[in-house]
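Observation: inputs received (chain + flavin-adenine dinucleotide).
Thought: call the complex predictor directly.
Action: predict_structure
Action Input:
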Amino acid sequence: MLIETDILVIGAGPAGSSAAKHAALNGSEVILIDKKSEIGAPKRCAEGVSKEGLKKLKIEPSSRWVTKELSGVLMKAPNGTSVWLNEEKVKLPEAGYILERKVFDKHMAMDAARAGAKIMVKTLATGLERKDDSLIVTAETMGEEFKIKAKIVIGADGPESRVGRWAGLKTTIKPKNMESCAQFEMAGVKMDDPDSIEFHFGSVAPGGYAWLFPKGDDIANVGLGILTTETDKSAYQHLLEFVENCPATQNAQPVELNIGGDPVGGMLKELVTDNFMIVGDAASQVNPLTGGGIISAMEAGLYAGQVAAQAIRDDDCSKAKLKKYQERCEENIGKKFKRDLKVKEYLLSLSDEELNSIAEAFQDIELENINTAELIKNLIKVSPKALLKLGKLF
Ligand SMILES: Cc1cc2nc3c(=O)[nH]c(=O)nc-3n(C[C@H](O)[C@H](O)[C@H](O)COP(=O)(O)OP(=O)(O)OC[C@H]3O[C@@H](n4cnc5c(N)ncnc54)[C@H](O)[C@@H]3O)c2cc1C
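Observation:
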């Protein structure tokens, strides 16, 4: 069987659903496929998004998929010293709402369907070949193999993407750029402030950080990300130790385990080739500092969908035409990521003792209108190493 379409989107996570929606809204015939039988499940995410991010994407928060509205962020140094930032002051990313991703992802796919995209669930892409001015993707559903011929394929197949490589892009991620994450969703969690998210820094999570993201009542996502280049233990082993020692989880029990990679090395250099674009985690469009990628995946999806639809209208799906997508990503996402990557490198260079003294110094500073840039300016005030490593950035 051969199906033909203008645009085929592979992967119905936030990136793919956004790309499919915006391509369909701009007049293209779109098919969106996902290997999962239930879009969004299982989740591999702590489910935090910023209010600003949703606003920018013009997505109204819905009680169907927001489980918790947050009022602050608590940052903990290895010795337990806390720096608390409340909502009026915080403009940090991933610090506004906690989602129920299993519901959110489905709703984003529903929006794509309402915009006109055709959705095929439990449909796995297994290969891609180029034929004349099209790409032909081999797919499998319920044991049946078939082909989809598309003028443009958008690869949105997440952190273990294979589609980009099939199309000829360099998508290999070095271990030092891939955060290895493990997380429990737990009941019985007693947080210091159940309306704030908590970050724990230092040797609890070498190369990353640990988090507690409250989902209402006594429920929270409790997880961490590590770099395998910084520790001999697995993320899961670190998680077990964290849960055993963290005061908030002494009486907590897991109801779900999520294991997954998070590409934190900054955006891929090449996002397009003839008839092909790559978006979201597959393109490493994750904030290198926070590891958050929902909003950037959807923003990139929006640009990809719009640029792809324009290319279809102009009957030109060449790399040169699709490059507009790459330019918009570099301008609106990549520039900030480059700066955040430097901040991350600085944070990775700090010992537990240095983190403790920075947290202690921060307790005496009156912070106003906090965003990442403001935080770094204050870091520079209290840490000479920060001045050396970050001074030129701000
Ligand atoms: C533990 C953890 C915690 C995180 N916490 C946060 C957070 O709090 N906030 C935040 O913003 N980000 C967070 N992230 C990152 C966030 O989850 C991702 O950035 C986001 O899901 C990226 O969306 P995506 O659409 O690119 O990829 P995904 O959500 O991974 O979607 C990819 C889709 O492609 C499908 N697929 C893959 N291969 C194929 C194929 N061959 N054929 C068909 N379908 C295919 C998959 O089934 C999947 O549905 C976290 C990540 C991890 C691992």
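Thought: report the result.
Final Answer: The chain has a mean pLDDT of 93. Residues 2-44+102-174+265-344 form a domain with the FAD/NAD(P)-binding domain fold (CATH 3.50.50.60).
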